[in-house]
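User: Teach me something about this protein's shape.
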Amino acid sequence: MHLRDESVVGQWKLPSRKFYGVGGKTLAERVANLPRETKNVLSFTERYGPLSGNPLDGGQFSFTVESWWRNQMLFQRNWLSGQVNPTTLLLPDGNTTIEFRDRWLQLGCPDLWTFMTLELLSRPERLRVCERPSCAHPYFIANHGKERYCTTDCANWAQSKWKKRWHAEQRQKEPKKGRQA
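Assistant: First, the predicted structure itself:
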């Protein structure tokens, strides 16, 4: 895989491997939060593949870095609106498979975009944007209903800010200590 004239060009690896998601953050969170640098698009694609297209098609794939950024912005807008529309999934399309294996239902997606959309559809009520203004990775899926910050660092930042404000208010309430005559 390489970069050619602001396009990522690569060859599908056959046979393709099964992908069950990634530990820690979902693939959807990784795409939504990927910093806007060409090297990041290239390394993401090397690890996971392009956002669209099917490895079963074989051959070469190519997409512009600009189109990747447009897809990321669309994905972020869907996240912010909380409206991930299941009608955008064209199922069944011939490339989607549903199998029952080893007591598990396995859904084979035609591309990463479909996989990430299904990740969001599985828990739409838990989609969040971190409330810390300077957060570098603001898009996250909450573990519980009241989560407002993506990491402990962001939550600690908010608590620190709240404590500073509280202490300032308490200092203003204290009577001024002056000399007694």
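Now, about its shape. The longest helix spans residues 152-173. Confidence is low (pLDDT under 50) at residues 86-92. If you'd like, I can walk through any region in more detail.
User: That's plenty for now, thanks!
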